[in-house]
Amino acid sequence: MRLQRGLSLSLKSIMVQRKIGSGKDTVERRRIIVAANVEEIYSKHLASLPKEDRLRLLAMLANGLTEILPPDDRRRSLFELEGLGAEIWKGIDAQEYVDDLRNEWERKS
Asked: Which candidate among 4, 17, 76, 101 keeps its CA 20 to 30 Å from the CA of 47?
């Protein structure tokens, strides 16, 4: 029960801090406050838990995150990557590049 009470108090603190202020500076301050509270929650309540309980908590957190992510039921295709990074190879002759690589390998062996 101590874990739950301390955890809920820290989470309430995070929620209150998020409501305060506005603007870019406040967003950065919120990140620092949230990060500090998460570290505090871990060090005060979670670090001392047995390994099995921490692993169970990790699984619970992971399951909670998967519920947040939108399901992507469609299958992915390797062809979706076609053209990515083309700007990197702009102006480079493919055959010349391969020949240079092969020559480099031959020099090393």
From this structure: 17
